[in-house]
Amino acid sequence: MQRPRTKTPMKAPDLVVPSVDDDTEEAPWMVMGDAQFWAAAHLATSLHHYAQVHDRPWYVASLLPIVYRRPGERRTRQVAPDVLVSFVPQRPRASYDLAAEEVFPAFVLEVVSSSSVARDVDAKRRLYEALGAQEYVLFAPEPGLLEPRLQGHRRGAAGRFEPWAPDAAGRLWSDVLELWLAPEGSLLRAVQADGQPLLTYEESEAARRQAEAAREQEAAARQGAEEELARLRALLERGKHEG
Predict the structure, then answer these.
(1) What's the distance, CA 228 to chain centroid?
(2) Which end of the chain is more exposed for a tag (fewer CB within 10 A), N or C?
(3) Half-sphere exposure of 226 (CA within 13 A, CB side)
(4) What radius of gyration, in Å, describes the C-alpha atoms of the chain?
(5) Neighbours of 228 (CB within 10 A)
(6) Is the dihedral of CA 157, 158, 159, 165 positive or negative?
(7) pLDDT tens digits for the chain (243 residues)?
(8) 17, 126 in Cβ contact below 8 A?
(9) In what order do the strands lie in the sheet with 187-191?
């Protein structure tokens, strides 16, 4: 499979930062069911593991508060994407201070639920566009919340968000990550351009153990075959001498 050409990210134009209610632990739209939690966790952990193994300059986080200020306001506000990827140094953070980091995460994703879908589709789209995200993805792990269930917005040539529709297979190609995003049941799987899926650390370890067990079985079978061959040769030699 030929990898789609990566576009140079466009700078965000000067947009009015909308007034959006903060993402806090008490906010009803922040409550996540199993489907939302595991979809976000699976994607975040697979991206993090991929970045570590392939030395990608990514900082990957999930539900980390991004602290920002609207122009003319003294108080800080916060928004917490379900998954974010930013080109900043990899280090532990309690929050992502936009003033200190000086760059908004290039990639943000929201896993929608019935309590968050309206906010994710409208208010957060406008906020992420104004703050500087290059790509904004929405994914519905459960049917009936979004159509199509994977969609988003990405910055176009004019520097504004443009609708981002999936291809015929229901996938999105991320220029920021240089990866496909593909629904897999209730999960969202990141896939390399050659079709190789990204694995979480746990999946990678399970695959390694499975491959190791297969090699051990193959070695044991080879050793057994060699021992049997040696036994037959010994019998043949004995028969020659006795004859």
Answers:
(1) 50
(2) C
(3) 6
(4) 25
(5) 10
(6) negative
(7) 444 444 445 556 778 899 999 998 888 888 888 999 999 999 999 999 999 999 999 999 999 999 999 999 999 999 999 999 999 999 999 999 999 999 999 999 999 999 999 999 999 999 999 999 999 999 999 999 999 999 999 999 999 999 999 999 999 999 999 999 999 999 999 999 999 999 877 776 666 666 666 676 776 778 878 877 887 788 787 777 776
(8) no
(9) 172-174, 179-184, 187-191
Kind and range of the H or E run holding 138? strand 135-139
Model-level pTM? Answer: 0.81
217's tokens: 């079985």
Cβ neighbours for 190, distance < 8 A, ≥ 6 positions apart? 43, 46, 47, 50, 177, 179, 180, 181, 182, 197, 198
- Structure tokens, 81: 């994407």
